[in-house]
């Protein structure tokens, strides 16, 4: 829900800008239609964030105590932006259509959309600190913030932010392409008065998706180079690279027992030396394998967990420094593959709608509708890879940072019973399942209603006002 809100809010603000500048009716109709879907998604997306607040205190209280002095600043900034700027200007945008001057109302749309990006920036800065802690020092056994600027300009964050925002635009682009393609096809043989709206929407979505994928590729390459330096085990597990190679090959696909965590069971088809280039911009760099990295991690961070009763059954047990190889390997490829499919659908949509053409085949609207899911899957797979690939750490050690600023996931969890976890999980999942049904119902209702469902047509030429006048 969040990526769709981020990407769609900016696109809706752009649609409204086009309307204010040109006065063309199609841009006004686009703003109203896609804005309605944005509001439904935003309303549901807001409540999904609440569960994370409970998770911090209930399931991850040791983690919250450990990172609290650092996370307080960026999360407070996010709260101010999200709950004050976003909500204020979104409210003004919703209720200001017939009350505010055009340009003031447009400014509210841009303020809201940019606030969503700013909110994401602070959240990603906090998350990136977990991936690469900076701007902190150890005081009484806990990291204490000594430079908020270092946290906000963390190179890991500066790479993650454009990558994540581009992923959000890919979600919004596929959303536009899928729905607009369906509307174009549905009335392909009739005189549809709103055809210009759907053509403009599908082409905007197509171009946005292609540009977003290009940005994803560039920023992803930069992230890969940082991963090589900061989290070498994550890179090795993403490639199922068992042994150190120089040069290192890039794995295209794997066959064998990918459910096994023993990387020797996975056989891959490779592109020679490409992984070395992705890691360090040359074709000869050494990339360390899983087995060699395990030895290094054991020498640096220990072979066994502390003999602490708080660790439960893991107390004193050997530390497994290898992430779940099937999840990291396939998660990385699902992220890339589904992102490419989404961009490819956008490119196809541009081709089929060139020179005022209207797609008239059944397979295209079906493909476009199914493709709405692809960037969602790609985004989710990317986050699963990012978070699971850093295990067994919840705060990953900075190889060149302050000693001690790291934490094992086993140390971070609350000491609560399995029954308590299941109870909260079932309750929250049930609640969000109901909310999900509500959102799907509302989205489906407004999508099927089209422009007339958002802007009811006038009964006669003499009744009411035209839509532009009605808006103000």
UniProtKB/TrEMBL annotation:
UniProt-annotated location(s): Cell membrane
Keywords of this entry: Cell membrane, Electron transport, Heme, Iron, Membrane, Metal-binding, Transmembrane, Transmembrane helix, Transport
Chief location bin: membrane
Pfam families to which the protein is assigned, alphabetical: Cyt_bd_oxida_I (PF01654)
Membrane topology category: Multi-pass membrane protein
Listed transmembrane segments: 33-51, 71-95, 107-126, 165-185, 197-218, 330-352, 364-385, 421-443
Domain of life: Bacteria
Family under the similarity heading: Belongs to the cytochrome ubiquinol oxidase subunit 1 family.
UniProt-recorded name of the protein: Cytochrome ubiquinol oxidase subunit I
Species assigned in the record: Amycolatopsis thermalba
Lineage of the species this protein comes from: Bacteria, Bacillati, Actinomycetota, Actinomycetes, Pseudonocardiales
């Amino acid at each position: 829900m969040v990526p769709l809100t981020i990407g769609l809010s900016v696109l809706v603000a752009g649609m409204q800008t086009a309307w204010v500048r040109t006065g063309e009716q199609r841009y006004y109709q686009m703003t109203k239609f896609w804005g309605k879907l944005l509001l439904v998604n935003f309303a549901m997306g807001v409540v999904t964030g609440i569960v994370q607040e409970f998770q911090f205190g209930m399931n991850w209280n040791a983690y919250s105590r450990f990172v609290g002095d650092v996370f307080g600043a960026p999360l407070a900034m996010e709260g101010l932006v999200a709950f004050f700027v976003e909500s204020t200007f979104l409210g003004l945008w919703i209720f200001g259509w017939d009350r505010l001057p055009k340009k003031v109302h447009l400014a509210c749309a841009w303020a809201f959309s940019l606030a969503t990006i700013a909110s994401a920036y602070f959240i990603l800065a906090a998350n990136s600190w977990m991936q690469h802690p900076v701007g902190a020092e150890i005081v009484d056994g806990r990291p204490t913030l000594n430079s908020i600027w270092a946290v906000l300009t963390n190179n890991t964050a500066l790479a993650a932010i454009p990558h994540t925002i581009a992923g959000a635009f890919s979600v919004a682009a596929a959303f536009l392409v899928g729905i607009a393609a369906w509307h174009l096809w549905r009335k392909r043989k009739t005189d549809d008065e709103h055809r210009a709206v759907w053509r403009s929407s599908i082409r905007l979505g197509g171009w946005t998706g292609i540009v977003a994928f290009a940005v994803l590729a560039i920023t992803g390459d930069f992230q890969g180079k940082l991963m090589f330096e900061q989290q070498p085990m994550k890179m090795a597990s993403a490639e199922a690279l068992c042994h150190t190679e120089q040069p290192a090959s890039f794995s295209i696909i794997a066959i064998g027992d990918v459910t096994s965590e023993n990387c020797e069971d996975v056989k891959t088809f490779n592109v020679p030396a490409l992984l070395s280039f992705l890691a360090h911009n040359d074709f000869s760099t050494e990339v360390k394998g899983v087995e060699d990295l395990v030895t290094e991690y054991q020498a640096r961070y220990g072979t066994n967990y502390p003999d602490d009763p708080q660790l439960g059954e893991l107390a004193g047990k050997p530390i497994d420094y290898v992430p779940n190889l099937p999840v990291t390997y396939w998660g990385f490829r699902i992220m890339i593959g589904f992102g490419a499919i989404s961009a490819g659908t956008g490119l196809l949509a541009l081709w089929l709608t060139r020179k005022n053409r209207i797609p008239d085949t059944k397979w295209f609207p079906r493909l476009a509708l199914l493709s709405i899911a692809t960037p969602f899957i790609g985004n989710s797979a990317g986050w699963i890879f990012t978070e699971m690939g850093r295990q067994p750490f919840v705060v990953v050690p900075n190889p060149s940072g302050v000693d001690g600023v790291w934490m094992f996931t086993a140390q971070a969890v609350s000491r609560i019973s399995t029954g308590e976890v299941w109870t909260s999980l079932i309750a929250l999942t049930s609640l969000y399942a109901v909310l999900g049904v509500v959102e799907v119902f509302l989205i489906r209702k407004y999508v099927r209603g089209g422009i007339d469902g958002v802007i009811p047509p006038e009964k006669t030429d003499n009744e009411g006002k035209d839509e532009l006048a009605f808006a103000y």
